[in-house]
Amino acid sequence: MQTTFPRLMLDHAKQRPQAAALREKVYGIWQTTTWADLAQMVRHMACGLAEAGLQRGEHLVVVGENRPRLYAAMLAAQSLGAVPVPLYQDAVATEYQFPINNAEVRFVVVEDQEQVDKMLELRETCPQLARIWYDDGRGLRNYSEPGLASLDALLEAGRAFDAAHAGFFDAEVAKADPQDVAAMFFTSGTTGNPKGVVHTHFTLLDRASAGARFDKLGPADEVLAYLPPAWIGQNIFSYAQWLACGYVVNCPESAATVMIDLKEIGPTYYFAPPRVFEGLLTSVMIRMEDAGALKRWMFHRAMDLARRVGPAIMDGQPVGALDKAKYALGNLFVYGPLRNTLGLSRVRVAYTAGEAIGPDLFTFYRAIGINLKQLYGSTETAVFVCLQPDHEVKADTVGVPIEGVEIRVTDSGEILVKSPGLLKAYYKNPEATAEVLTADGWYRTGDAGFLDAGGHLKIIDRAKDVGRLMGGPSDGAMFAPKYVENKLKFFPFIKEAVAFGDKREKVCAFVNIDFEAVGNWAERRNLPYAGYTDLAGKPEVLALVKDCVEKVNADLAADEKLAGSQISRFLVLHKELDADDGELTRTRKVRRGYIGDKYQVLVDALYGGKSEQFIETAVKFEDGRSGSVSATLKIVDAKLFPALRRAA
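Predicted structure:
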């Protein structure tokens, strides 16, 4: 798309000034920002930033939840030719140090007191940090730090500057070229420092528009922006596609009100990683277990029918007249009310990505009439590489290459991508750029997979993580840790898993239980517990997890290539893996190497044949305090199944 973000915003403001652009829930009431309101806000904010000294090509860090004035700050920076850099709002202060110094950031726009405190804490290590503007002033009345001011003050200064320099803003917007840098996103950094992924207006808008054409998105659509704006997936759905399509972006009041806000808005276009869909289903199943016998019977009968014929109806395939009539009845009494309870009654297109989604979970949503599909992409590809077309949806693939995309699979199984949406470069990192971009324009994804007979892409694992077992009965067998971990996480009782096995004689695993799901399971069985650590160590819970592990092993035994990846031994960790403790990235990807080093004593116990192991671990609490958690963990042996050989 040969335009820029600010020009698209101005086009919407000119063509339909009074149409809603953004909504934000404040004190329980939805407040609407029209395109005309937004254009005025961006104009004044850009003028205020210009007066403060923001230069073309300079970086502006933006930290917070999805908020209209933070979106306006990004547009204001882009209007001046500066580059917005969204960072994760739940990161601790030290995690901002590298991006801020790497990008030589002088100016920051944040949401509230929590983020202001983090930025003030960083001034010793980031001395160039001169100006901090905040959106929400609650708790900041008595702050008198140099360079700290509200966005209201910035807008007021911008109004005065605009009045004195009438043609300034329009002239600055006109200078922009589609090939100019539009934004920078820092990768989650599973190893080492995060890398700044540089994207232009063209790369982001081209992919946003291709995705919009694929699913016929337009101004009538509604989205709920509730995931971190620093994650490129959220940024594409609620920023790039928002400006490309002109639909309405709705910002929840807080993380705690997302489910209520979802029901009130009823989005038509919805995106969530698998963990959100898992959480929604877990909450439904917990409520159903507590329901009366008649309701439970009706629900389970209706769901049996839905799983049998629902996906076929969704895919437009022929279904018998009797089944169709039964499904219509089920839709009236069960599926429709259930979609409404989930807040997904108006969804026309729903996507999931980021991790593999369990086939049962995926089938559940499609069975009750929600058009849930999968996509494939990354920060470096501006998200959209493969999408699943309507009526061609498979649980085990991520779709077909969309408009403008070419895919090639190397002899080693690595997926290469050529697309108009590829990153310009990694910021100040030519070596890393050269590693992922080939001389002839292909991007090395680092993912291993293949294209099936229908042209759909199937992902196995990260190419660098695919290893081999050494010694033992499975010597030389392929080991794909993420594939194994995802199979474990398909069970509602398992929240996270970490598998080990490369260059070892067998596969062992750490497991995190889902506290809510297992807690509810325990309560129904009158099993008392005093918190996560206590619940995770219960013999009954270990037996529950063992059953899940052995079902995964039986499933793996049916896969000729991965039968050797069956889990021999496992333990349930005494604490939840946490980004604040360095065990997960901010996008909740497992840092397998770090976890292996941190819990080396547990890895040694698994492979050393021990039946239990004491561990004490330092943890960080949400309020910033430090402490420790200790426990003696039981190590459980799991049943292995003989590999099923395919007939010749």
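Summary: The chain has 21 helices and 28 strands.
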